């Protein structure tokens, strides 16, 4: 039986009615009963355990095997609605188990539709960061381990081609928006016509402006008739957003809406007033006095993270330090999240890439050294601790200028937070040590300068001016506290690098040029004034050219008067732009450019008047001539390529049918033109005609493309059905007819899966084998019997190498 919402999706598949066996019948009976139970499920009664829900056997077993028994609030409410096919807007505090609240319905709703690999993509799960996508995928692997669906992880970091090959057959995809869109646009094999469910975890983040275009484009690719589920701790209620996703009469499941606090009750929250210039001291002292804790430290930018991480590492606090930010290589990021998850005591310095959804086990402290941009970010950051009934503590460092504004915002969001004071006796200053280190190690100093600049810029672009006020910050002291010899001067230069900054805050990324220019006044002027006063021996020291590898770009960064010229406006706005940009920005001017030509010209006139004898004039083509007045120029004559520079541009001609040459644009005479009406109407007519023409052509193209796709798919399906039918018969004697094994993409560097899972992965048939259809079935560890029969069958099947072979076989089977 189809789930109640018959208008959406399709019912259970009508299989061929010949050759049905008892086994298959029993399967269908089971599904019918399951659907019946779902329909009868009473939404009013509060359920306690997963076993109270009408779940399929594979899901129930997966949950038990992963030790999930009792339902959390959000799970108990959201799952029942979702099983009935309703659209869901799920809001519940951090750490309250939202992941299962959408994964269970995804598995169940596909299962009840008897989804198989041939049905293509059934569910798409979007997450704002790669780490979160991986984490969701891991949970899916765990609870979905007894299902026959194929599932994939699409987060980039691998070649598109490699992913493309596998995507065609995936039933469930967990992905980040950018990469997904790329596939939707480029991967022909990926069929979304059939999609049943769309899930967005951390939906408000995905729907905010940074992802807006991408998400709109993704949704454009998906069928309108589908189930949509949005989950977050801070949920969007914007009607516009919901319309964008064409949500139909969504069920708003907000379990903690009436709660006294927006954060878990097991979380203790504090703030402390730390002037900007003492932040690092306080942080250092905190780390030193909590060596037996697991702590996440949030900073506002990747540069800050790197500087604090590198400098604290030098200082050897006596606890493992790690760092996580958006510009790290994917493999590295993964290693770090895994390592931090497994550590008992460690400190992780992170940007907001780690703020959303990540479920590090047993985090004791969340320290926010830099004030979060808004209260939602605050809630998500502190949500990294006190997860699922555990306790946790959070401390927010606030500059005196930020206190009033931020507290007001937190109060509005129902965040209970108390002030604490740091014991002066426990506080340790590391300013001198940092200064020493920066002095000795130019690279560290360079990082420090970058960190300073990115911090100032991050404050500058903050939207909430009630909290963030650049003028009130003591930047000179702050620079000194980083160990820097004076505050780098900051110029907000025009231009923004075009690199996509998916994880950077939208505000940071969209700093407009005009704002940037005027911003110069705030930061730069103040610093300039200060620079005049403060000149230390460090300044003089750095005016000397550094003798190490960094000397080159240092000299580019430092003006003659020892102040910084910042090449980083483009970088700081986007918090972590590539360092390379700095190295590459200064280009050498090619020796024989136009300017040399100019020089040559002028020297030519002098030369002629001086009667210099060496000068020659070479006719290059009709119009241009080249003056040869030096050896170097003489050499030029030998290189055709270099000479191109001095030749004028050719004119492009087009040829008509008779072979006569015409200019690309030929003017018609004015009378003829006027005869056809005045310019404006002509233009309008032309535009209208062209628009109409393009539109029609567009439609035709789309129609043709769709037709082709459909045809291809039909063919493929017919082929595959034929094969499946053949196999089903074999299966009947052999054992459980299971489709594909639960096939995930490998996760680079991840070793968090259980051993059994890994083995399963290792024994997964390779791509080539799968193309041969020789072994499309599960060779999972549990059923060696099945495996044996498969083995036999493989041997008996003819080896298929090419598509032609395959087609031959298929047509044979179709009879
Ligand atoms: P959220 O997405 O709401 O922040 P998660 O889904 O990441 O929360 O879950 C937080 C933690 O709670 C995870 O470690 C998860 O394993 C655990 N958890 C979730 N649901 C249950 C449950 N029903 N019983 C026990 N633990 C659960
Ligand atoms: Mg979550």
Structure, explained:
The structure is a single chain. 47% of the residues lie in helices and 10% in strands. With 815 residues, the chain is of the alpha/beta class. Among the domains are: 38-254, 3-Layer(aba) Sandwich (Rossmann fold), CATH 3.40.50.300; 267-481, Rossmann fold, CATH 3.40.50.300; 497-534, no CATH class; 552-575 and 586-644, no CATH class. It has a 7-stranded parallel β-sheet with strand order 3-4-2-5-6-1-7, sandwiched between helices. Helix 13 (330-342) links the parallel strand 10 (321-324) and strand 11. The radius of gyration is 33 Å and the shape is globular. It starts with 21 loop residues before the first helix and ends with a helix. The model is unreliable at 1-15, 493-504, 509-532, 545-612 and 728-815 (pLDDT under 50). The structure holds adenosine-5'-diphosphate (ADP) and magnesium ion. Adenosine-5'-diphosphate (ADP) is lined by residues 68, 70-72, 75, 92, 94-100, 357, 359, 387-388. InterPro entries: DEAD/DEAH_box_helicase_dom, Helicase_ATP-bd, Helicase_C-like, P-loop_NTPase, RNA-helicase_DEAD-box_CS, RNA_helicase_DEAD_Q_motif, SPB4-like_CTE. Residues 1-29, 509-534, 597-621, 666-803 are annotated as: Disordered. Its EC number is 3.6.4.13.
**Count of DSSP E strands?**
18
Share of residues in helices: 40-55%
CATH C-level of the domain at 38-254: Alpha Beta
CATH fold title of the domain at 38-254? Rossmann fold
GO molecular function: ATP binding; ATP hydrolysis activity; RNA binding; RNA helicase activity
Keywords: ATP-binding, Helicase, Hydrolase, Nucleotide-binding, Nucleus, Ribosome biogenesis, RNA-binding, rRNA processing
Domain Helicase ATP-binding: 79-253
InterPro entries: DEAD/DEAH_box_helicase_dom, Helicase_ATP-bd, Helicase_C-like, P-loop_NTPase, RNA-helicase_DEAD-box_CS, RNA_helicase_DEAD_Q_motif, SPB4-like_CTE
